[in-house]
Structures are given as structure tokens and as C-alpha cells.
Amino acid sequence: MQKAHEFAFYEPALLKQLSIYKENQQAIIDDKLLFHRITRILRLTIQDTFLLFDRQQHMQFELIIAEPKKKQIQAIVVKKQRNKILEPAITFFLPILKKDALEHTIYSMVECGATTVQLLYTQKVQRKLNQKEFDRLQNIMIAAAEQSKNFAFPILHEPKLLQEAIPTFDSFNVVYFFDMNGKDILHCLESIKFSSNKNFSIGLMIGPEGDLTDNEKEQLQEKRVVFCTLTPTILRAQQAAALSLGIFRSFLNKN
Q1: What is the mean pLDDT of the segment spanning 81-106?
Q2: What global pTM score does this model have?
Q3: Nearest to 114 by CA among 170, 166, 152, 160
């Protein structure tokens, strides 16, 4: 279990260079930006530990010395590990929300353990996502991974129309849509026949602000999507997304 105060940094290029070092070896970390973050912003001191990670692995280091003139850090490699891949795979189909709500929801997708996030355009989505905002969402995912230690953080896919996403539902064992008129969530959870098969996967989906249209819901029902209710109250989209993913990941993690 990671210490609560241990900082993690997403550094794929740097980690590739450092992967030549074995556990208990001394490594030289030559990266000016990381040097600045560790020594000036976080002010880590001798014997403090920190983590570097990419999507495949992470390494734990113990700080020995920081050399200001060279902007270098000398550290002991404490541990090298492959990242834990959460199972089963959960793909979250997320309509484009308002900017702040979307950013908070994307952060939650990492914290709560989604495997993949597919952004969606539905009939009531009122805006388009540009490349700058998409890139920002990628960076938010990285920040969430550093904080939550979910090193194998979700893959984020660019938005597609709901009509284009629906045919992909056949590839999942089951897809759930969260709706006030759906089945009780306990019933939905108890009906999941989870196996250790690595190909086992589920999809989760919420509606946008203003919900899906009746026609869109009919299209989901035609694909045998299971309608499931979260609470007896109406939730905002970002709350429904975090709550539903958290519940399903927690339940599936115990089974």
C-alpha cells in the first residue's frame, strides 16, 4: 500500500531511460522540470520517496541527494513493478457535459477505475469539443492518476455520435444505462455473472444534462441495454457518473 504523502509523476520518456536500473541500484535522474517539481515545489528531502510511472509500470525511488548546479537527482531504486490492471474492463460512455462538469467527471473516471472513456455526442449535447479541450482532458487524467495512484489510467477516446457507439455494445457482456425508471441497482449488481475471463467487460452510460431523448432510449433498449436506477432522487450528470462507476468498480473488485 502506498503512503498517503508519496508523490507520483507521470514520466513515460524518463521512465524508459531509467528502466535499465535494477532494484537497490543508485540512479541519476537528469530532468530539469522534475528536479524543479521535487526540490522547489514539493520540497522533498533526503530519504523521502517518490514514484515515476507510465501506463505499463512504475518505479519507486528514495532521494539521496539533489545537485542544484547540475539540476540532477541521485536516488536509490527501491521497487519496480508492473501496473495493476483493474478487472473486469469497464468502458464508460460519457456524453459531452458543460466544461467544468466534464473536467470533474473525467477526474472521477480515473479515481474510480474506468478502463476506457468514450466521449459521446447525443441529441441534447449543445457544444462541440475542440482539440485544445480534448488535450486538456488528457492532462486532467494524468493529474488524477498522479493523485489516485491509478497508474494504468483510462484511455480517453475522442467523441463520436451515440448512433456510432451503439453498434459497439455487442462487444460487451452487458451495458448499463442509468435512468430514473430503471431496475434497482442492487438487482443490476446481483445479476452480473462475472467470470475471470480476461475478455469479460461491461459498459456504463449516463445521459447528458437534460437526459437522452425518448428515441435514443429506444435505440438503447433495442440493443438490450439494461436500464438501472442509482438513487430515488435526480442526480446531476457528473454525480451520476462518479457514483455509478464507483459502485460498480467496488462491487466487481470484491467478486
Answers
A1: 96
A2: 0.92
A3: 152
